[in-house]
Amino acid sequence: MSECVNKDLVIVGAGPAGLSAAIYAQRAMLDTITLEQEAVGGQVVLTSEVDNYPGVPHTDGFTLVDAMQNQAKDLGATIEMKNVSAIEHDKDESCFYVSTADTKYCAKTVILAGGATPRKAGFANEAEFAGMGVSYCATCDGMFFRGREVFVIGGGNSAAEEALFLTRFAKKVTMVVRKDHLRAQAVVGQELENNPKVEIRFLTSIVGVDGDGRIQKITFRNNTNGQEHTETFEDGAGVFVFVGRVPSTELIASLVDLDEVGYVISDDRMQTKTPGLFVAGDVRQKPLRQIVTAASDGAVAATSASAYLGHPVEG
Fold first, then answer.
1. Distance between CA atoms of residues 84 and 21, nearest Å
2. SS3 212
3. For 111-137, how does the pLDDT look when each residue is reduced to its tens digit (9 = 90+)?
4. Distance of CA 121 to the CA centre of its chain
5. How far apart are CA 162 and CA 80, in angstroms?
6. What is the pLDDT of residue 58?
7. Helix extents (H) in the chain
8. How far apart (Å, rounded) are the C-alpha atoms in residues 259 and 298?
9. C-alpha gyration radius of the chain
10. Could you give the CA distance from residue 98 to residue 251 in angstroms, rounded to a whole number?
11. Dist. CA 28–CA 313, nearest whole Å
12. For 147-166, what is the mean pLDDT?
């Protein structure tokens, strides 16, 4: 590994939060690098329809994120595809060491905008059938279930929106909701109820799947009386899991406070308990996780980092 590269700010993650932070960091004239391990845009690029981002109606995740990335680069932002393996804090030097496979950065400030990964549902054979009937992305895999039955686990906005998307391909979409109601917004719930391809099974859970190279059997449990029954699908069925996300906090877990489900606790300036360490986007504790709130977090975090470095930015 080469010698340490000094930076005012290292942004970890190039989703909407990280890209927004990069834009605001450039406007604050901070020496910044943004690091992304997988794909610029994160999970948003897999979103087929985005109609709630102000000023950009009827778009898709890839198009929206591509515009964000181009804007950041036009302003001079540096975005590199690197996996961050460690973030360490040196209290004596008041700096952070951000390590990748080939470079160590010495950063005065850090913004973690790593987002979150899909949470597993926990039914039997879930891991064994991942990619062979079990999916966590309707946009990625929906087309493989054209003309077949699919089941969507979850009752929130993501589950409801993905269920509606899957009606383009599947002959029938059944939502499996463990509670007696949907948590999705009312307008989305109404769309589900009005769609002839959609069935909603409340107070129901999937406890296991099985089959020969594809899902041919699904076992359901009635959450009211505990009774189980198995349904058979000779042509194969799909199970799409949307039961929340797990925040990617492992890099900074020892430097921050986490809530009971693992999200980072920060103040309204995105500051964590470690001075100079900020968070933005789905990784932090907040009441609403949407593209627009992630972008807002990124703007606040970069502005806060600039102020921390002694360069306050006027609104």
1. 18
2. coil
3. 999 888 888 999 999 999 998 999 998
4. 16
5. 31
6. 85
7. 16-27, 61-74, 138-141, 157-166, 186-194, 291-308
8. 20
9. 22
10. 10
11. 7
12. 95
Residues 6 or more apart in contact with residue 99 via CB below 8 angstroms: 1, 84, 85, 86, 87, 88, 105
pLDDT of amino acid 52:
84
With a cut of 60, say whether residue 1 has pLDDT above it. no
pTM assigned to the model: 0.79
> How far is it, in rounded angstroms, from Cα 70 to Cα 198?
39
CA distance 97 to 7: 10
DSSP state of 162: H
CA dihedral in degrees (205, 208, 213, 216; nearest 10)?
Answer: -60
At residue 133, what are phi and psi to the nearest 5 degrees? 135, -30
312/197 Cα distance (integer angstroms): 54
Of all helices (H) and strands (E), which one includes residue 288? none
> Angle, to 10 degrees, between the axis of helix 291-308 and the axis of helix 61-74?
20
Distance CA 287, CA 155 (A): 17
Question: The dihedral of CA 22, 158, 118, 278: what is its sign?
Answer: positive
